[in-house]
Amino acid sequence: MNKSIAVFTSGGDAPGMNAAIRAVVRMAIASGYEVHGVIRGYQGLIDDNLRPMDSRSVSNIIQRGGTILHTARSKEFMTDEGQKKGAANLARRNVSALIGIGGDGTFHGLAALSRFWPGQIIGVPGTIDNDLFGTDYTIGYDTAINTALESIDRIRDTAESHDRFFLVEVMGRWAGFIALDVTVAGGAEYVVLPESGESLQQIADLLEAGLARGKRTGIVVVSERGKAGAVHEIAEKLEQLGRHEYRVAILGYIQRGGSPTARDRILASKLGAYAVQLAAEGQTGVMVGEIAGKPVATPLEQTWSRRDEKPLDPFLMEILPVLAQ
Fold first, then answer.
1. Which residues are annotated as catalytic?
2. pTM
3. What pairs with residue 122 in β-bridges?
4. Assign residue 259 a region: left if phi > 0, alpha if psi is -120 to 50, beta otherwise?
5. 86 and 136, same structural domain?
6. Which of 213, 235, 256 is the last residue of a domain?
7. Which one in 52, 248, 259, 310 has a CA-CA gap of 20 to 30 Å to 158?
8. Strands across the sheet with 218-223, in order?
């Protein structure tokens, strides 16, 4: 019986997913596997929407954003019956290993599927949020912060021209990695993080102190805190506490699209190839990652249960108030 690997993308798209798909497909073929691509994530497993892939099917995609395999949210797969359907389709096609590219929702799905399917399951971290334990960076994160940074640079031009203060909301769910990095790189005056405990009064006082020093403009970066648009409430409360009027900019989905940076293309290529190596070694139930430049494998459950053990850069947190003077 021929060995077979199936690969899919799930959850929110992230720049570099196509580079990871390319690496999985070509590494798997070189390792003697047949390869199937699952179209539209877990819903594709339920619908048996799999197609054979060869080296040419992933030509000219490394530079493309999004995912050629598409992605979808599947309520049906959240049920035992949906997972059993997916497992039955994998078994019927004699798939021996399933590689899922996505975030913690994707990995929860892989863990659930393993209850009904005995094949190997391996996760590849593809999410702009960088919120998974077991890897220094996730695929898509570098592109997302560079996209957000370009937008903040443009907003600053308007802020300076009109002597205005802006609140700029970035993605990240409940993790502040994007927000902190673009705050430092963009020279913003302050950042509102899910991990920090400052009151809005403290933030208002800090901005008022800047006004007293002669600052006529400023940018505050706000992490979405799991709810897009929460920045409007923050702006309203800050206006009540201080003398500033705030303009609000929500960067939203532009952070998830676009051509991946070189760093994301390289990371995706390495992790996709490493996932196939782990499959060839017989490993299962793990996520591939890279820590300090070295490949690592982390049990899937730990990627979300130990998330708090992946802190924001403490030195950046320490020097930010000084840099923002």
1. 129
2. 0.95
3. 99, 286
4. beta
5. yes
6. 256
7. 259
8. 190-192, 218-223, 165-170, 246-250
